[in-house]
Amino acid sequence: MSELKLRIIVGIILAAVAICLIGAGGYVFALSAAIMAALIFREWRHLTGASLKWMTAGFFMPFCLYWL
């Protein structure tokens, strides 16, 4: 299977999962969004080799935006 076909299939599956989570709403959606944010942050940290200072700033940024 080519990489493009695999990406399309995974994209369709993830879109269906996202629609289900949005439909579930409430705490289910909030928890899944928090888990996804943590995974994205982990990937970003590995790609950039971020220092502790940047990891701390990245952790607190959503809270700062919430308080605005």
Quick take:
This protein is mostly helical and 68 residues long. Helices cover 90% and strands 0% of the residues. The chain has three helices and no strands.
Oligomer: single chain
Shape: flat
Largest sheet at a glance? none
- Helical fraction equals over 70%
Give the total of beta strands.
Answer: 0
**Which residues form runs of ≥5 with pLDDT under 50?**
none
Rg to the nearest angstrom?
A: 16 Å
Record the SSE blueprint.
Blueprint: H1 3-24, H2 26-48, H3 52-67
Description:
With 68 residues, the protein is mainly alpha-helical. The protein has helices at residues 3-24, 26-48, 52-67. The chain has one domain. The protein is flat. The model has no long low-confidence stretch (mean pLDDT 83).
Question: What are the main properties of this structure?
Answer:
68 residues, 3 helices, mainly alpha, single chain, 0% strand
